[in-house]
Design a protein that fits this description.
single chain; about 240 residues; mainly beta; Jelly Rolls; eight-stranded antiparallel sheet
Length: about 240
């Protein structure tokens, strides 16, 4: 009996990293992108369009080719889609940021729903979102990682929400968690998703917090992945 149990564990550990069907919402790898168009390899057809100046928006990635943003007016705009109305989520990306003029550099944001950025003063990752009531007076819940990340160094950042608690992971390791209960679900709206900037279409229109540096392997899931699965995704 025990031998069978150990063999089962052994074979489970040998199973390659996979994504359960329907969990992956968006995936940008940037490996074959050109011009201003970013292709979604999740299968959901959520192509993004790079906004702002510059002729070459691609450069070195964490592994191979990645997205390069100028910190002035570049970001990837993704049209709103009901698939972004998620009760639970995981946001993640490899990032290599440089100091900029902004007080924070946005990794991604769907205004009024969820977001993740890097603070300029502390170099800590901040994650947050809008939950429950979802009126104009709804307050966001947010918190910072308990560790900073290095400038101009590739770092994997992730934020998860499981319906109760917000968490941040840096290089696959839990880096603090929300100290207050979060009254889910995540607010749904018609705002677009922005990669590398803030963007809000419901007045007042807002563009700010442009990311300066490179990104790679940007992914969104509609579940809160545990640390071991985040580490799997880091290496894909």
């Amino acid at each position: 009996m025990f031998k069978k149990f150990y063999l089962l564990i052994y074979f489970v550990l040998l199973i390659p990293s996979t994504v359960i069907a329907g969990e992956l919402v968006l995936e940008y790898k940037f490996t074959a992108d050109t011009g201003d168009l970013v292709h979604d390899t999740s299968g959901n057809g959520l192509a993004g369009v790079i906004q702002g100046s510059g002729a070459n928006h691609f450069g070195a990635g964490f592994s191979g080719r990645g997205l390069r943003l100028n910190g002035v007016d570049n970001y990837v705009l993704v049209e709103d889609n009901p698939i972004f109305d998620m009760g639970h989520y995981t946001l993640m990306a490899w990032i290599k940021f440089k100091p900029s003029q902004w007080d924070r550099e946005e990794v991604m944001e769907k205004a009024g729903a969820f977001w993740m950025n890097v603070r300029q003063d502390t170099h800590k990752v901040r994650a947050g979102g809008f939950f429950s009531g979802c009126t104009d007076k709804t307050l966001s819940h947010l918190f910072d990682s308990d560790t900073s990340i290095a400038v101009d160094t590739w770092t994997h950042v992730a934020s998860t929400y499981d319906g109760k608690i917000l968490r941040i992971y840096i290089n696959g390791v839990l880096a603090g968690k929300s100290a207050v209960p979060v009254p889910g679900p995540v607010c749904a709206n018609i705002e677009p998703l922005a990669i590398g900037s803030k963007h809000r279409i419901i007045p007042p229109e807002m563009f700010a917090a442009y990311f300066f540096g490179n990104m790679d392997s940007v992914r969104i899931f509609n579940v809160a992945l545990p640390a071991w699965r985040i580490k799997q995704q880091m290496n894909k």
